[in-house]
Specification:
Pfam families: Bac_DnaA, DnaI_N. InterPro entries: AAA+_ATPase, DnaA_dom, DnaI_N, P-loop_NTPase. This protein is α/β, with parallel strands linked by helices. It folds into 2 domains: 89 residues, no CATH class; 209 residues, 3-Layer(aba) Sandwich (Rossmann fold), CATH 3.40.50.300. Helix content is 48%, strand content 13%. It has a 5-stranded parallel beta sheet. A two-stranded antiparallel sheet has the order 1-2. Helix 11 links the parallel strand 5 and strand 6. The relative contact order is 0.10.
C-alpha cells in the first residue's frame, strides 16, 4: 500500500507501473469502506479515478490511527455529489479531544500550581505518615473532606496551626486525590495548589506585563475558575512586625484575594494564624468570605480536643 500520493506518483513512472498500478487500484477499491462508498454512490470509473487520492489518504490515515490510538486525527470519506468525487476529511479523534480536555483541566495541577517548596508536589494521603493520634485525626479529617468534595459538597475548608504540622501536605493530598479520581472517572476538573507568598512575589515581578503568565488579570482568572483551589500559608505574605504584632495586609493583596474569593464557592486554606489574627490582617469582610461554608470543615493542628469548630471559636 502506498504511504503517500508522492509514493504513488513515483510508482506510476516505473516501467512495470501499469500492471502493478492496476493491482494497487484493485487493492484500494477492495477496502471495505472504500468499496461501500463506491457502491453506495454508484461511482463511475471516472469518479473513482478522481477519488483515488482521497481513498489513499483515508487508508493511510486509518493505518496511522491503528498504530497510534492517540493520533491527533481520524478521517472520514465524504462524496461531493456536485463535483463528482470523494474527499477525505480529517477530524479530531476522541483521544485528542480527551487529551485537550485533560490539558485544560487535570493537567493544570502540575502546570499551573505555584509552589514555594517543590517537595509538596509529591504529597499524597499515602505519603502522609501520622505520628500519634492527633496526626491520625488530621489525616482522617482530610480524607473525609476529600470524599465529601468528590461527591458534590461545596464550601471552604480551613486548616490552621503552627508551621510544620502537615497542613500543606494534607491540602495537596486532598486536591491530588480529587484531580486523579475525577480524571479516572472521566469527569475532568481543575485543581490548583498555590502558595500565597510565592503567588504575590511572582505577580509583583509581573506588574509591567499586562499579558504575562503571572499578570494580575491572568492569575485572577485562573484562580477564580479552578474547580478546587488550595491557598497555602495564607497570611505569610503579610506576617508580623518586629514586635510580633500582626500586620495589616496591603490594599492590593486584600483586593486581589477578595476578587478571587467572591467568584468561588470551594477553596481550601492553610494558615499559621487564627481567626482573630486573620481578621486584623484582612478585615472582617474578607475573613467572612474565607470562612464561608467552613462550619464542620475547620481543623486546628494544635492541642484542642474539638478539632471541628465554628471559625469564630478558633
Amino acid at each position: 500500500m502506498f504511504k503517500s500520493i508522492s509514493d504513488a506518483i513515483v510508482f506510476k513512472n516505473r516501467p512495470d507501473a501499469s500492471a502493478r498500478a492496476e493491482e494497487k487500484r484493485i487493492e484500494i477499491l477492495s477496502h471495505p469502506i472504500v468499496e461501500r462508498m463506491c457502491l453506495e454512490h454508484m461511482l463511475t470509473d471516472r469518479q473513482i479515478d478522481n477519488s483515488m487520492s482521497a481513498f489513499l489518504t483515508y487508508i493511510s490515515q486509518k493505518e496511522k490511527l491503528k498504530a497510534d490510538p492517540l493520533n491527533e486525527y481520524d478521517v472520514e470519506l465524504f462524496f461531493m455529489k456536485e463535483y463528482g468525487y470523494v474527499v477525505a476529511n480529517l477530524i479530531t479523534t476522541e483521544a485528542m479531544k480527551n487529551r485537550k480536555l485533560e490539558y485544560d483541566t487535570s493537567d493544570k495541577l502540575k502546570r499551573e500550581s505555584i509552589l514555594s517548596d517543590k517537595r509538596i508536589e509529591k504529597a499524597t494521603f499515602e505519603t502522609f505518615i501520622p505520628q500519634g493520634a492527633k496526626e491520625l485525626e488530621a489525616l482522617k479529617f482530610a480524607q473525609e473532606a476529600a470524599n465529601d468534595y468528590r461527591f458534590g459538597k461545596t464550601g471552604n475548608l480551613l486548616m490552621t496551626g503552627k508551621a510544620g504540622t502537615g497542613k500543606s501536605h494534607l491540602a495537596m493530598s486532598i486536591i491530588e486525590y480529587l484531580n486523579s479520581t475525577f480524571r479516572n472517572d472521566g469527569k475532568y476538573k481543575t485543581a490548583l495548589f498555590v502558595s500565597v507568598v510565592e503567588l504575590f512575589e511572582r505577580m509583583k515581578e509581573s506588574f509591567d506585563e499586562e499579558e504575562g503568565k503571572y499578570s494580575t488579570k491572568r492569575m485572577r482568572d485562573i484562580l477564580s475558575n479552578a474547580d478546587y483551589l488550595v491557598l497555602d500559608d495564607l497570611g505569610a505574605e503579610t506576617g508580623k512586625d518586629r514586635n510580633g504584632n500582626v500586620k495589616r495586609a496591603s490594599d492590593w493583596c486584600e483586593k486581589f484575594l477578595s476578587m478571587v474569593l467572591e467568584a468561588r464557592e470551594t477553596t481550601i486554606f492553610t494558615t499559621n494564624y487564627n481567626g482573630e489574627e486573620l481578621t486584623k490582617m484582612y478585615g472582617q469582610r474578607l475573613v467572612s468570605r474565607i470562612f464561608e461554608g467552613s462550619y464542620g470543615n475547620t481543623f486546628i493542628f494544635e492541642g484542642i480536643k474539638d478539632k471541628r469548630r465554628r471559625i469564630n471559636e478558633v
